[in-house]
């Protein structure tokens, strides 16, 4: 507002005469702008007309001649941030969750830009605000309300976040696995403790070199489940990640590409035929098969028991076992080929 007021103060008759030659293009642009606003309102774009107006004003203010470089940069950044928000009013990256990913990923840039320029403009505005007691009180009142509203988030959200933890007994630490010895959750109506996974994953971190493919069970309940815990906590590649994210990030591929991998994981753990299991192992070059509490909940016992039978026939080797988890290593390709 101050920048616009300073600009308007320069609209003297002498200065305005300099624009006489551009009067027709300017009037045409103004007419197009009004028509565009009318169209946007008719199409029920309620936010876009406001943002478009602010973007144009900020851009014009930033392009004024003889403007100090610092102020020019700030105004152009404001116009750029507003333009980004305008973009997502009309365009969306096609995915499985509507506009959500497009909005928040673009708005992350907007928040960063406006957080910087907001601090700078507040410092610049403060001297002029101090001169008028009424303005200062009103400005401080508005600022106080905004700060108080922002401060409510860490106060209220911390408790809300704490209440949805898998275990409130887990220590407060930067170790992302530290909750597992204390946590249990429900999957398919069964209780799944994570303490056995914790021990097995620690062993894998210390004893499996390189980047071999590890097979683990798949659950659609990936936000409140242990699915993909092997890939997450060891960094080793698996067969399928979180289905929703995979479909978004690989939208160019046919949908059945993801479905096929999910089906192959089910076949690997459910089939009672060793040869069918070996076909999946060869297809994805699997080096280790992980069977934990989650797998026992998701798949039939006869399908999981076959891994012990494959150990007896020399196709697999059990390299780790605790009370709830087994890890099998696929023997070398010669042994697999011999079985075929």
TrEMBL record:
Signal peptide: none annotated. Pfam families: DUF2298. Keywords: Membrane, Transmembrane, Transmembrane helix. The chain crosses the membrane at residues 21-40, 46-63, 75-94, 106-126, 138-156. The keyword Oxidoreductase does not apply. PANTHER family: TETRATRICOPEPTIDE REPEAT PROTEIN, TPR-DOMAIN CONTAINING PROTEIN. This is Uncharacterized protein.
């Amino acid at each position: 507002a101050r920048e616009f007021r300073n600009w308007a103060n320069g609209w003297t008759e002498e200065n305005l005469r300099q624009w006489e030659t551009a009067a027709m293009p300017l009037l045409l642009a103004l007419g197009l702008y009004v028509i565009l606003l009318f169209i946007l309102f008719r199409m029920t774009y309620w936010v876009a007309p406001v943002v478009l107006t602010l973007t144009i004003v900020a851009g014009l203010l930033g392009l004024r001649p003889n403007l100090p470089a610092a102020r020019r940069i700030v105004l152009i950044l404001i116009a750029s941030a507003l333009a980004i928000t305008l973009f997502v009013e009309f365009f969306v990256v096609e995915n499985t969750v509507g506009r959500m990913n497009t909005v928040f990923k673009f708005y992350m840039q907007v928040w960063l830009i406006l957080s910087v320029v907001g601090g700078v403009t507040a410092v610049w505005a403060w001297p002029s605000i101090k001169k008028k007691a009424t303005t200062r009180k009103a400005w401080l009142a508005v600022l106080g309300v905004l700060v108080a509203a922002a401060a409510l988030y860490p106060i209220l959200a911390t408790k809300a976040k704490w209440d949805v933890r898998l275990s409130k007994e887990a220590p407060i630490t930067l170790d992302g696995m530290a909750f597992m010895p204390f946590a249990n959750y429900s999957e398919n109506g069964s209780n799944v403790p994570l303490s056995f996974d914790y021990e097995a994953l620690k062993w894998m971190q210390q004893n499996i070199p390189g980047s071999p493919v590890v097979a683990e069970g798949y659950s659609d309940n990936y936000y409140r489940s242990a699915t993909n815990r092997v890939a997450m906590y060891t960094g080793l590649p698996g067969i399928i990640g979180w289905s929703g994210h995979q479909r978004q990030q690989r939208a160019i591929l046919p949908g059945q590409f993801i479905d096929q991998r999910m089906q192959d994981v089910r076949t690997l753990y459910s089939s009672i035929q060793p040869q069918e299991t070996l076909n999946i192992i060869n297809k994805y070059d699997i080096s280790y098969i992980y069977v934990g509490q989650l797998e026992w909940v998701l798949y039939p016992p006869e399908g999981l028991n076959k891994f012990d039978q494959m150990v007896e026939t020399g196709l697999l080797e059990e390299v780790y076992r605790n009370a709830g988890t087994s890890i099998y290593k696929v023997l070398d390709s010669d042994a697999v080929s011999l079985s075929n």
